[in-house]
Amino acid sequence: MTYRFIDTHCHFDFPPFTDNEAASLMQAALAGVDKIIVPAVEAERFAQVMALAASHAPLYAALGLHPIVVERHDEQSLEQLEMHLAAKPEKLVAMGEIGLDLYRENPQFERQQFLLDAQLQLAKRYDLPVILHSRRTHDKLALHLKRHNLPRTGVIHGFAGSLQQAERFVQLGYKIGVGGTISYPRASKTRDVMARLPLEALVLETDAPDMPLNGFQGQPNRPERVADVFTHLCALRDEPPEQIAQALHDNTYALFSNL
Asked: For 124-147, what is each residue's pLDDT tens digit?
């Protein structure tokens, strides 16, 4: 049986996709990938991400200021973000990639939190779901999300926390992004979380060209490998593949209603 997939997180504005978009999209389509959401990471890339979405039918845009490059963001970055949101482009489906990160040295965490709060306010104002980055910050991020109480919620991308932390996000109305981490046998905690969460809480993602799957280490990740993520997820869960595929499809459209 052929399944259809949506990659809810692919940085298609980076190499190896740059200047190779048509061939890459054809390769993804052959694997059943119909749609791909491309999150921006900084204001300088907003126009490029929007142009990609406008030029290629399978691509959709998300705009946001990523916490890992917090030093590149300023008040003007937020102004540019709101300018794009106010224009309400047809293929803008979310705000992202935004969030919190305590992995890097000198994370400028107060600045990160200021930018996150500002962007969550914009998401509420413009009625957009959010694509959230969270590394070593799940509990802190959950507090911000609870306080802002977004009507459209969003997805916790690249989740690698505990089941309890995942369940807290789900209780707040958020989806959990399932990516290539589950292809690694040593990622037992994450695999267990994805096996035990309600199926209605999950969406698929690759984070391409990052987060390569097991067996592809050292190679750029690609959107067509979302089909492999699906295969690994099916191996972890009790439901039949047809039910899992339909639920992932329905979950994605429920969250990103502008797709």
From this structure: 999 999 999 999 999 999 999 999
Distance between CA 217 and CA 211 in Å, rounded? 9
Among 128, 108, 133, residue whose Cα is nearest residue 256 = 128
Closest CA to 135 of 106, 101, 168, 109: 101
CB-based contacts of 114, cutoff 8 Å, min separation 6: none
Number of Cβ atoms within 10 Å of the Cβ of 231: 12
Q: Find the distance separating the first CA and the last CA of the chain, reported in whole Å.
A: 24
Q: How far is CA 25 from the centre of its chain?
A: 18
Distance, CA of 99 to CA of 112 (rounded, Å): 8
Q: Do the beta carbons of residue 12 and residue 59 sit within 8 Å? A: yes
Count, residues in the chain: 259
**Which residues are registered as beta bridge partners of 134?**
100
Whether the CB-CB separation of 69 and 45 falls below 8 Å is answered with no
User: What whole-number distance in Å separates Cα of residue 116 and Cα of residue 109?
Assistant: 10
Tell if the pTM clears 0.85, that is, is over it. Answer: yes
CA distance 194 to 1: 23
SS3 94: strand
User: Which ranges of 88-159 would DSSP assign to H, the alpha helix?
Assistant: 109-125, 138-148
DSSP bridge partners of 175: 155
Average pLDDT over residues 66-72: 96
**Phi (first) and psi of residue 253, to 5 degrees:** -70, -30
**Two tokens at 47?**
């126009």
